[in-house]
Amino acid sequence: MTDADPPLRLDNVALTLPSAAGPVEILKGVSLTVAAGERVAIVGASGSGKSSLIAVAAGLERPTAGAVALFGQDLARLNEDQRARLRRGRVSLVFQAFHLLPNMTAEENVSAPLEIAGASDAAPAAREWLDRVGLGARLRHYPHQLSGGEQQRVALARALAARPALLFADEPTGNLDAENAAIVSDMMFALIAEVGAALVLVTHEASLAARADRRVSMAGGRIVGAV
C-alpha cells in the first residue's frame, strides 16, 4: 500500500448469485472508496445488498463483475491464501451474531487470531484489550457465561487487538438491547479512533449511522445516495 492507496476501493462491482428461481442480482454496479481513517455507514432496507457489499469488499465473496482493491491490491489477482494473508492483521470484521468460539474463554477468543498472525505477545494483548472493553474480570469466562453485550465486547476486542487498518462491522448492535447497544457503539467508535482504523459499518440504527463521517444509502443492490 502506498500513500495514494485507500484501504478500500470498489469499482462498478456486481454480484449475481444462483437461486431455485434463477440468477439473482444482489449488487448492481457499486462503486465506493473508503479513505484511511474514514468512517462510512452503509444504510438501507433489508435486502438492499448491504451485507453482500461487506462480503465482497472483505474478499469473502468474489464479485461477478467489477474490481475490488484492498490497500491497493486487486483481489481478483489473488488466490484464497493470498487474500487471507492480505487481510491478516490489516482487516477485521465484527458481526451481529458475535461468532465467538464456544469452547474458548474470552481471553482465548481474543488471543487466537493474534497467535495465528504470529504475535509473540498474544495473551498479554488479549488481556489488555479485554480490560479496555471492561471485561478484565471475565477473562476465563466462556461465551455461554457472558451476556450478549459482553460477547459483542469480546468480539470487538478480538477485532481491534491486532490494530487493523480497516474494520468491517455488520449490524454490530443488531442483537443488543438499547443500553448494551449504546455501550458497544461508544466503545467501538472510541477504540477505532485510537487505533486509527477506517470503518465500514452496516446498520439500520439511524443514531449509529449518524456518528459516521459519511452515510451511503443502498436500495435494490445499488448506491442511491451519500451524505
Q: Would you mind describing this structure in some detail?
A:
- The strands form 2 sheets. The protein has a 6-stranded mixed sheet with strand order 6-7-8-3-9-10, with helices on both faces. The protein has a 4-stranded antiparallel sheet with strand order 2-1-4-5, with helices on one face.
- It has 7 helices and 10 strands.
- The longest helix has 18 residues, at 178-195.
- The radius of gyration is 17 Å and the shape is globular.
- With 227 residues, the chain is an alpha/beta fold.
- The two termini are 27 Å apart.
- Helices cover 32% and strands 27% of the residues.
Major beta sheet, specifics?
Answer: 6 strands, mixed
Into which percent range does the helicity of residues fall? 25-40%
Give the strand content: 25-35%
Intertermini distance? 27 Å
Number of strands: 10
User: Which structural class best describes the helix and strand composition?
Assistant: alpha/beta
Order of adjacent strands in the largest pleated sheet: 6-7-8-3-9-10
Uncertain residue segments: none
Kindly provide the radius of gyration, computed on alpha-carbon positions and rounded to a whole number of angstroms.
Answer: 17 Å
* Global mean pLDDT: 94
Q: SSE string, helix = H, strand = E?
A: EEEHEEHEHHHEHEHEE
Shape label: globular
Discrete helix count: 7
